[in-house]
Amino acid sequence: MRARVVPALVLALLALFINVPEARAQVVGGFDFSRAEVSVTGLQVPWALAFLPDGSALVSERNTARILQVRPGQTPTPVATISGVSASGESGLLGIAVSPSYAQDGWVYAYFTSTSGDNRLVRLQLSAPQTQTVIFSGVPSATVHDGGRIAFGPDGMLYVATGDAGNTANAQNLNSPAGKILRMTPTGGVPSGNPFSGSRVWSYGHRNVQGLAWDSQGRMYATEFGQNTLDEINQIVAGGNYGWPTCEGTCSNPSFRNPIVTWTTAQASPSGLAYANNTLFAAALRGQRLWTVPLTSSGGAGTPLAELQSAYGRLRAVAVGQDGWLWVATSNRDGRGTPVAQDDRIIRIPPATSGTDTTAPTAPGNLAASGTTATGATLSWTASTDNVGVTGYDILRATGTSGGTFAQAGTSATTSFTDTGLAANTAYRYQVRARDAAGNLSPVSNTITVTTSGGTGTGGCTATPTTQSQWGTGYVIQPVTVANTGTSGINGWTVTFTLPAGHTVTGSWNATLSVSGQTVTARSAGHNGTIAAAQSTTFGFQATRPSGNTQVPSGYQCTSP
């Protein structure tokens, strides 16, 4: 990307104001990124977002196979579990979509890697979530390159993005659904107007598409993972060949369509894609940022700008909510990120406002805590007032009974909030402030101190591994079931095991792994460290091994505080 050059005179002028708080909104693509807020926490590898007519969102979790309903500031609610999901590596429950006629038919669509060895598409109704009808199957699957994004286009047809499943030849084979963008009817059939007779193939020559979006003129765009060099956003046309595996990025072959923008794989690894205000928004995993890409009148790309860079970790999904805010989901618990206690999260960015409201809300009152446990506490307070209306509350937290800096721990649309993932036997201080639609912030509430209880730490635990899949040079161990064998709850656990010589762990989920020699130590994540008596939780990992070696890890031992 072209470097920005700032004249020395401008730098000198800025230096005069170095101690003045920033007052300008960071507005890009019609959204105010200076007011980004964490709205949902405690998710486990969210993969896709889709919105219901009431404004709430459905979220798919890749590894748990759950679909959850979420609202800002509220605890996610499981509403369905997809049957027969095989989750390992990049596979599992992936895309979800809501029928354009949901108010009449109630259909929700889900795309996933199945235990039958393929990727497939089902639809269901939340009123009877256990009834799931397969409407399309047989897409080649693997632990990598499963594509997975699904979306209804402005034509009412269902579009499905697939990957090459690790076999590059699939992308150019029009008889294979892998490495394609497919177009089908809401019941899975072949619609009229497709470019290849009797085929669902809409475009081909794709390596791994995980983002789909349409602009206001109905033009279609897709994000695509490159191999080692360049990631892409492409404008998609019917029958277009996008060049994989011959081309990665732009090439001179007139048989292939070139991308409208490329990045290095370290800058992007783009997954979800959204459109608003003549701008594309691409969620970057490895790049840990949200790329904003202005569109030209011809559907090409202007100069991309990066937002949220390294602020929230790996970003998987992005969508424009029915509330007009931009919703972004993290993917820090997918085995390739560094999760924090709140992960995975949904961040919301409000639309820019051009009003002249400068009146701040009143301070929230009577902040109090209840229901404190070893890992969480519930806060409540008296509502603020504002001349045009309070839009939400920021929950601020500092560690210890004094000193330290308050940082935002979450947001709430109501006058209560449950903070989770806390450390046992630890003091925390809390404050709450209100905000309005213009971004005005109230004074903070009273300060309270909450001390979590100590972990019970009695009883023991066991770890039982299951070998889910193996191939010549690797394997997936999932689940490793961690069971509380004691008579009271445990708060945190550690599992150790031994890797055979020459084996290397390449990814993990639902635990933090460290390796010393051949000894692997897996520690509980923030969301699964507390296990009640006689209950259990799980984690998993993937590893490579020398060709011809059939050994798997051994000597699993579990300890708890």
Automatic annotation (TrEMBL):
Disordered: annotated span: 542-561
Residue span, Fibronectin type-III domain: 363-455
Keywords on record: Carbohydrate metabolism, Glycosidase, Hydrolase, Polysaccharide degradation
CDD domains tied to this protein: FN3
GO MF term set: hydrolase activity, hydrolyzing O-glycosyl compounds; polysaccharide binding
Keyword Hydrolase: yes
One GO BP: polysaccharide catabolic process
InterPro entries: 6-blade_b-propeller_TolB-like, CBD2, CBM2/CBM3_carb-bd_dom_sf, CBM2_carb-bd_dom_sf, FN3_dom, FN3_sf, Glc/Sorbosone_DH, Ig-like_fold
Domain of life: Bacteria
Record domain CBM2: where: 454-561
Protein name: Oxidoreductase
